[in-house]
Inverse folding.
């Protein structure tokens, strides 16, 4: 790709104001309503999705408190009890200064993307300019992961973790990663759960893998206090100034007045990152701006600014309940708030397991795609027992953004199932596409010793269950795209939010989340 066509920038609100106006045109509402009545009937008959009308009266109530404390059941086992006792009441979650994003050369061919895309509901009717976006979930540096990455000479190298999916990351125009743990350097001591800290070499590996945007707003952002945040920001600024580091900040001005915007071919994409809390650790008294929190006034103010600066808005919230395969009430509340404030795409993290991918729509015809949780990208928990296998499965969100008549929208979307493979020895931790994983590899995965249910078939069934609706969207393909584009041009419509139901029994699926019929 011609890099001269790509502009990466930070838009500082006090000095730059770009107002984006979209004029809604008239459309045939009867056809739209009739189509969605058909969708409702189909989803009801197949039990693949349900619809819930969201009005002011029955919309999820605002949750009390901003510092969510998730259920601690099933976190670390006795192997880390001594560390955990009285030291933290946190969840096992994992755990920025805004800078320009680096752009990678190389483009994904449309044919390749279509072959891998089980969720391609839009791709054949749009031929305009596009921006491809990918994101992966939690980089969770449990102690065995760090030990696996220590080389014979005592230095760290994390490249092996990303080696099997590196091509997919580099092919994207814009690649995001949830960096769950603070990168404070060896001077603070490399540590795992419950108080994480990563060496700078992890940052080197993220850049080498091809990531452009690093998300640091997690509940572990303050594990090493103010010093950890400052070290992390200094590392990124000194060594990789072109990488966008979001979610932690070096100043009040950076938190208040800077929105990260990526621009390519005239399409402007804003990205914002927040966390529900920091495991009960207070923000430093002299650094109250250190971490972006999910606080309603802050979020709505930022979104108002982002709507002035960009054509397409992405929010990456660290939210939800750990190890739960479906969104909770707080996620639903924030989903509605994001939708009401002009967000186009939400990609969530924190639960450490995958959650559904859903479209939501408001009464004005505005639509938003939500990846509730991408699960872990890499982890090696010390816990054992039922459900541990779920934590080894993650997803790579893949979204293509286009623009038509001055309006940016999602051209295509998908999620590629991933599996974390762990084994003893140097460079023994890596991540595979589930489609590339084999039964033999699964049998060798050391996590089997911690949860005997783990297998390739188990991982496929989990993806088939949680991401079932992507397959259903595929079935509706072109008629769905036409209807969505039509809705986006309507000034009014039915006030509803679509939510998919999960079946209790996991069914066998292929490597892309399709249930085997």
């Amino acid at each position: 790709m011609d890099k001269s066509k790509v502009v990466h920038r930070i838009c500082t609100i006090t000095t730059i104001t770009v107002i984006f106006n979209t004029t809604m045109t008239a459309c045939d509402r009867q056809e739209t309503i009739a189509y969605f009545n058909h969708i409702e009937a189909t989803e009801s008959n197949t039990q693949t999705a349900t619809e819930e009308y969201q009005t002011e009266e029955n919309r999820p109530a605002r949750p009390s408190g901003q510092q969510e404390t998730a259920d601690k059941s099933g976190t670390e086992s006795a192997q880390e009890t001594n560390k955990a006792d009285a030291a933290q009441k946190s969840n096992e979650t994992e755990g920025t200064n805004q800078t320009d994003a680096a752009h990678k050369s190389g483009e994904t061919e449309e044919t390749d993307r279509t072959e891998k895309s089980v969720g391609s509901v839009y791709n054949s009717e749009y031929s305009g300019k596009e921006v491809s976006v990918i994101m992966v979930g939690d980089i969770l540096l449990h102690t065995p992961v760090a030990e696996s990455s220590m080389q014979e000479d005592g230095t760290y190298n994390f490249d092996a973790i990303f080696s099997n999916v590196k091509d997919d990351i580099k092919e994207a125009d814009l690649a995001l990663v949830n960096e769950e743990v603070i990168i404070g350097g060896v001077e603070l001591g490399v540590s795992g759960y419950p108080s994480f800290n990563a060496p700078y070499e992890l940052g080197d590996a993220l850049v080498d893998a091809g990531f452009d945007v690093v998300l640091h707003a997690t509940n572990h952002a303050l594990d090493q206090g103010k010093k950890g945040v400052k070290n992390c920001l200094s590392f990124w600024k000194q060594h990789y100034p072109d990488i966008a580091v979001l979610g932690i900040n070096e100043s009040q001005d950076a938190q208040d007045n800077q929105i990260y915007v990526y621009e390519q071919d005239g399409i402007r994409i804003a990205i914002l990152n927040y966390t529900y809390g920091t495991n009960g650790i207070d923000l430093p008294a002299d650094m109250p701006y250190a971490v972006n929190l999910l606080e309603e006034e802050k979020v709505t103010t930022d979104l108002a600014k982002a709507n002035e600066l960009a054509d397409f808005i992405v929010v990456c919230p660290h939210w939800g309940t750990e190890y739960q395969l479906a969104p909770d009430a707080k996620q639903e509340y924030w989903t509605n708030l994001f939708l009401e404030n002009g967000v186009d795409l939400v990609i969530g993290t924190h639960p450490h397991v995958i959650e559904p991918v859903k479209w939501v729509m408001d009464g004005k015809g505005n639509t938003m795609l939500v990846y509730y949780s991408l699960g872990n990208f890499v982890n090696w928990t010390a816990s054992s027992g039922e459900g541990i296998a779920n934590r080894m499965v993650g997803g790579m969100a893949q979204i293509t953004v286009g623009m038509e008549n001055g309006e940016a929208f999602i051209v295509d979307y998908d999620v590629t199932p991933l599996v974390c493979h762990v084994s003893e020895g140097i460079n023994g931790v890596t991540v595979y596409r589930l489609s590339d994983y084999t039964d033999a590899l699964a049998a060798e995965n050391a996590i089997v010793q911690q949860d005997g249910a783990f297998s390739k078939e188990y991982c496929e069934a989990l993806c088939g269950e949680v991401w079932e609706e992507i397959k259903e969207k595929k079935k509706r393909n072109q008629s769905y795209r036409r209807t969505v584009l039509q809705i986006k041009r309507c000034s009014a419509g039915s006030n509803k939010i679509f939510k998919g139901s999960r079946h209790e029994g996991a069914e066998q699926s292929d490597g892309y989340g399709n249930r085997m019929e």
In short: Residues 468-488 form the longest helix (21 residues). The longest strand covers residues 407-422.
